[in-house]
Amino acid sequence: MSLTYKKADPLIHGAVKNLTCITRVDKQPHHEEQYYYIFWVSHINKVHISGGLNKNDVIERFKISAKEFDDKLELNEFFCKVCNKESNTAFSSLAKTGDKTCIDCLNK
Ligand SMILES: [Zn+2]
């Protein structure tokens, strides 16, 4: 099976194999709009972050639907989905695989 990867970020060398999650950028007072970080895995399995994009930019560049955007949007990105504890390992797993599970729960 051949996959067609999307080239979504002109600043990053690599094509998008898997968009793992979208997180909100803390809103600055001078920003009218909400911006997002997009975590994605490239064709060589490297995790990248694209930033400075509003919702429409994300949908357009990453060629996803509004529903996919909502599905990938993660509001509590540091909290393990299993034990609900705050953990950097949950976040790192989310960014790499889209699965927000901490190392303790993964090792159970
Ligand atoms: Zn956990």
Description:
- This protein is an alpha+beta fold.
- The chain has two domains: 1-75, no CATH class; 76-108, no CATH class.
- 26% of the residues lie in helices and 21% in strands.
- Strands 1-2-3 form a three-stranded antiparallel β-sheet.
- The protein is globular.
Number of domains: 2
- Mean pLDDT, all residues: 91
Question: What molecules are bound to this protein?
Answer: zinc ion
Beta-strand content bin: 15-25%
Q: What structural category characterises the helix and strand content?
A: alpha+beta
Topology overview:
Elements: E1 16-24, E2 36-42, E3 47-53, H1 55-61, H2 66-72, H3 88-97, H4 103-106
Antiparallel strand pairs: 1-2, 2-3
The structure holds zinc ion.
Give me some keywords for this one.
26% helix; single chain; 2 domains; binds zinc ion; 108 residues; alpha+beta; 3 strands; 3-stranded antiparallel β-sheet
